[in-house]
Recover the amino acids of this structure.
């Protein structure tokens, strides 16, 4: 078999195991029948994952998932006891197996990843401020850990992204540049202040003189000389950004020109040296030219790589729903073969655009039939500030940002709106719904949620509506704490899943 990309990690202090980077498009081996968690970690992972160098052409492995399994040692003993039921097709069932939640991230159908921080430093985007913010919150790993820590298996999936419009891409490039440069400038300033304070503590007499000299220098500077601080900060921030990218260059490997990013800074420095040798500029002019050349070369290489990469995509919303369906099929097969979770208790959860995809999967029979599954295989839907009616995003600016990939056909928007499909469903095997809104969510999201709940109840479906206090549309996924705290949103979701 080929080497595996899948990795496993067990956190014994919290008693759950994480299986990462699983390709859900690759079928499980027919012979696989594993009850021992050690065999799952050491045997199975080397048989259903693909070659490490064989990533999808869509970037950060958009056809993969991370699986969080709770209390695996407990489940191992359970599977060895009389509670195990073995069917004729070698499927395994355990009477105390946990339910499974499949989480689908948001991002307006064209952004995001199951490990969100990696997206922010990749061929899709280069935004160091968001990279550090999302890495601090472990988005969306915090959701998988939260469910697993509370006895519920959870899979966090990635799916192929839609192509953004040109002006949206340019706006994101500019925004990311400004946010990254601002962050690095602040960090560099704090580092310099730290060393200054350290020097003050270590060499008080010498440093008093240094401080006085710096003060006199600043006072005597004219307005033109003060402008020299800006190119110094810009130059240092670009060099720091280049270091971050170099350390994470594997996230850029599927872009068309990752080596161009690596060569941009050496090329810029060489160009500056040639310019300096020929023109012999003044100190101030040299600083400005170095910052302009360095920034121009690095940011141009990033922009070319990102724009050429995102415009290779020809995915549609239907492809995204099919990917979600494929992941559910794979997980159901895995659960049946290993007994690590109850395949009769599968719950789909999603945030924003992810909530739209899971609701569309449930209401449009064609996606489940394509993978030989039925609506009855899904027991619950957790929709976190989701989009249930695409017409709710019909405001001119929002439509241009998010709905441009869907086209201008009104009938097409209705066909892809879960709220429209509710009335077309004739089946009685419909999952229960938990619809969640943020207290400070956008008004059109709140109205979309209440209208959707009302329509579900009108057609006799079970739907519960909750508003999370002190939250916004973007902060809802962060409400799943990655430590041992339990938040209001977690309690609501845990009770809903365990009550099915």
């Amino acid at each position: 078999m080929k080497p595996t990309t899948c990795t496993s990690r067990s956190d014994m202090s919290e008693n759950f195991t994480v299986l990462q980077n699983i390709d859900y498009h690759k079928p499980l081996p027919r012979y696989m029948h594993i009850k021992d968690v050690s065999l799952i970690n050491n045997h199975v992972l080397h048989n259903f994952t693909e070659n490490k160098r064989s990533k999808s052409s869509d970037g950060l492995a958009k056809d993969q998932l991370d699986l969080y399994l709770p209390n695996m040692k407990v489940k191992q003993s359970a599977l060895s006891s009389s509670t195990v039921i073995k069917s004729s097709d070698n499927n395994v069932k355990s009477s105390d197996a946990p339910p499974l939640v499949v989480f689908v991230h948001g991002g307006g159908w064209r952004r995001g990843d199951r490990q969100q921080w990696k997206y922010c430093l990749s061929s899709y985007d280069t935004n160091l401020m968001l990279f550090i913010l999302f890495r601090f919150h472990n988005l969306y790993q915090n959701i998988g850990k939260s469910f697993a820590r509370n006895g519920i298996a959870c899979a966090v999936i990635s799916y192929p992204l839609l192509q953004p419009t040109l002006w949206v891409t340019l706006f994101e490039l500019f925004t990311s540049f400004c946010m990254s440069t601002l962050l690095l400038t602040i960090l560099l300033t704090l580092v310099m202040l730290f060393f200054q304070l350290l020097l003050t503590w270590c060499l008080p007499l010498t440093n008093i003189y240094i401080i006085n000299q710096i003060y006199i220098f600043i006072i005597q500077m004219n307005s033109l000389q003060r402008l020299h601080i800006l190119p110094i900060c810009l130059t240092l921030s670009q060099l720091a950004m280049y270091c971050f990218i170099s350390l994470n260059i594997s996230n850029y490997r599927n872009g068309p020109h990752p080596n161009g990013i690596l060569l941009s800074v050496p090329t810029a420095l060489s160009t500056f040296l040639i310019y300096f040798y020929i023109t012999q500029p003044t100190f101030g002019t040299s600083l400005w030219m170095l910052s302009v050349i360095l920034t121009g070369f690095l940011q141009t290489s990033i922009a070319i790589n990102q724009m050429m990469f995102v415009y290779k995509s020809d995915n549609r919303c239907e492809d995204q729903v099919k990917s979600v369906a494929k992941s559910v099929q794979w997980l159901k097969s895995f659960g049946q073969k290993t007994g690590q979770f109850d395949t009769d208790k599968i719950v789909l959860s999603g945030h924003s655009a992810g909530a739209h995809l899971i609701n569309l999967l449930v209401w449009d029979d064609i996606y489940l039939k394509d993978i030989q599954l039925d609506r009855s295989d899904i027991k619950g839907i957790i929709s976190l500030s989701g989009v249930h009616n695409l017409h709710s995003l019909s405001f001119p600016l929002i439509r241009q940002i998010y709905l441009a990939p869907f086209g201008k056909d009104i009938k097409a928007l209705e066909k892809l709106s879960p709220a429209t499909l509710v009335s077309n469903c004739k089946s009685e095997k419909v999952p229960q719904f938990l619809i969640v809104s943020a207290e400070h969510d956008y008004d059109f999201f709140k109205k979309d949620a209440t209208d959707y709940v009302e329509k579900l109840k009108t057609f006799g479906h079970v739907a519960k509506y909750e508003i999370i206090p002190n939250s916004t549309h973007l902060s809802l996924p962060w409400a799943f704490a990655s430590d041992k705290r339990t938040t209001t949103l977690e309690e609501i979701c845990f009770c809903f899943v365990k009550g099915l």
Remarks:
- The chain is about 50% helix and 10% strand.
- Residues 299 and 428 are 55 Å apart (CA to CA).
- The longest helix spans residues 166-202.
- Residues 1-13, 31-39, 41-59, 73-89 have pLDDT under 50 and may be disordered.
